[in-house]
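fyi for ur records
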Amino acid sequence: MRKLSITLGLRNRFFLVAICIQAVVLAALVFNSARLVDQTIEKEAQGNAQKSAELLAAAITAPMLERDLATLRDVSSLMEKEPNFHSLVVRDEAGQALVNIGPGKNETNLLVASKVPVKVGAHVYGWVEYEYSTGFVDGVRSSLIHQTLGIGLLALLGTGLLLFFSGYWISRHFQTLSQTAKRIADGDLRARAPVWGQDEVGQIAQVFNQLAESVENNVKRAKDDEARFLAIADYTYDLELWLSPEGRLLWVNPSV
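which gave:
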């Protein structure tokens, strides 16, 4: 069974590595953004729940002291209008529930609870237990993730295009060098690579051309030396022959 072999060129490998790095950075950015949103909004929700409970405790102090349960319930019921209200319990100093409202329409496991005493001076007359829903965090997180992904994908696309064309520009010059080297190997010693500039790629092309010129000069010098030697050897009247290490006759001067 023949194995499927996939060979990626320098440009494609450079492009794939860069895209993978960009994707990892994008994933880390999205994850960190969602984490920061959760932490920030949860902290803000905790502060809002604490303030709401404190305001309610101040508002119901007088009705609680007077045991005016009707006014106590009316004032407490105003908390249901809070957009993220979940539940409210008002207890007297003995722990008996005087008001119990909720849970509201925000059914969620993401709750922030706050417990504030109802007191005058140092004496505690009861407690306000308030639960604040943080279910809206899901919508904020989802919106942020979509925005971050959109921006990240646009950046990834732009970077990918830039890397693709940069890699194409670089690999195109190396491909030209490879083709020139192949021509020299096939016997075209006059082949030279074009020099595109004074940058690193252009310097490589210059060094390559210097090497090709050196090879051409050495080959020409060797041919001249060989021709000179054969011209002398052909007019030698004594027997002269060349043998290989295996004893095979390679050349004998024609004048013999």
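The beta strands are 85-92, 97-101, 111-120, 123-133, 241-243, 249-252. thats all i got for now
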